[in-house]
Amino acid sequence: MELRLYDTLTKEKRPFVPLDAKNVRMYVCGPTVYDFAHIGNARPVIVFDVLFRLLRHTYGEAHVKYVRNITDVDDKINDRAARDFPGLPLNEAIREVTEQTGKQFHADVDALGALRPSVEPRATEHIAEMREIIERLIAGGFAYAAEDHVLFSPQAMNAANSSLPRYGALSNRSLDEMIAGARVDVAPYKKGNTDFVLWKPSKPGEPSWPSPAGIKAEGRPGWHIECSAMAWKHLGEHFDIHGGGIDLVFPHHENEVAQTCCAFHQERMANYWMHNGFLQVESEKMSKSLGNFITIHELLKDWPGEVLRLNMLKTHYRSPIDWTMKSLEESARTLDDWYRVAADVVPGEPAASVVEPLLDDLNTPLAIAALHGLRGEAAALSGSLRLLGFLAESAAQWESRKQQASGVDAGEVERLLAERTAARARKDFKESDRIRDLLAAMGVAIKDSKDGTTWEVAR
Ligand code: AMP
Ligand code: ZN
Fold this sequence. Notes:
Layout: E1 4-7, E2 12-15, E3 24-28, H1 42-59, E4 64-68, H2 75-84, H3 90-111, H4 127-139, E5 143-146, E6 149-152, H5 154-159, H6 175-181, E7 196-201, E8 219-221, H7 223-235, E9 239-245, H8 249-264, E10 270-276, E11 279-281, H9 296-302, H10 305-313, E12 321-323, H11 325-342, H12 352-359, H13 364-372, H14 378-387, H15 395-406, H16 410-425, H17 429-441, E13 444-449, E14 452-457
Parallel strand pairs: 3-4, 3-9, 9-10, 11-12
Antiparallel strand pairs: 1-2, 5-6, 6-7, 7-8, 13-14
Bound molecules: adenosine monophosphate and zinc ion.
GO biological process, one term: cysteinyl-tRNA aminoacylation
Pfam family, one: CysS_C
Cofactor: Zn(2+)
């Protein structure tokens, strides 16, 4: 069976045909590093990790290149730096914020079982590429400098008599309607009210770099140009897959397409545009003001990363997801069971019943249903779970972590179990029942079999 992916641009599921099967290329918009990542940010990380793993499984590990950027220049970073490190010069404070947050992001996504991308470029290391694209856009008549800014003109793009894509095609909007609906109080240096910033002046003390377009004052890039520059540098002018959350379709991805296609005279930037749906918490939009804003870091104190991962993958990536405590508990029980059955067996090939739904536009809910059906085939279950990024630990590690998290003292449990065995041997069933009830009250479930008694922390 072939891989099929849904493309936001053409609004259809199509067979995936890479430009070069020896070098399959994917770009995903990464985090802006100014604060702990929240559980919504974990969704693209996990979803595109599954796709990365599936592509590696299909085309070979050496033949897939996955780029996920780090945005380390942004107003939110500057604000945070000034607030958290008031004693430091702004540039040093910014370095502190981006380094700390970047490290935290890595710790979080490693715990979620996500492979590191092939390249994780930082925006501030690609200023030369941004300037180059900006110069090309000006030379092509798509961009202009005004009052130390450089602006991109969507109208110039759509007026160009060429094979460029139409501005608005990705997000399914009409430029005329955007022009009619735009705010009236547009910045005076903009020629058109839908023109967007490629480059802007830096305020005193802010990070700044020599400007393009003959602008004397130093400046800094707009957000959209960063991704065009990093994708170009690491994947070329035209590549296979571009991903991110659905909120990025407009304006971020629409503008990336415009910049890249106009700078390099391409009909397309990426052949497949993939977007994950949004995550909400207990049926509400996650926000700081509602008090239901949860970071990955906080969740990892209560749940193993693989539980968060499974919980995310139970919903198809394009559907909205409702993140609930009930569903987390269920995911934890499922993983307990899979760890018991499959963690310590030699993995076999992933089962076709799991791989086939994945090939159908990453149908992870169906793949997970198939995993439930593999309980009796431990080797296939193990191989399939590993393909999906599970079973990083042994069964014993998993169980001991659960014990630690629950505060159950394994030594105490063993002592009580020995007492219970002794009570049973002398046929004192009242005492053995009392000990079983005591263990149950401690959150320990026991199972008697002909080989003796085993126990685990009950979920
Ligand atoms: P940001 O740091 O806000 O630019 O987000 C980084 C990534 O997380 C982007 O791909 C966003 O689309 C995605 N994202 C942010 N919030 C959510 C959410 N609530 N649900 C799903 N994805 C999200
Ligand atoms: Zn981006």
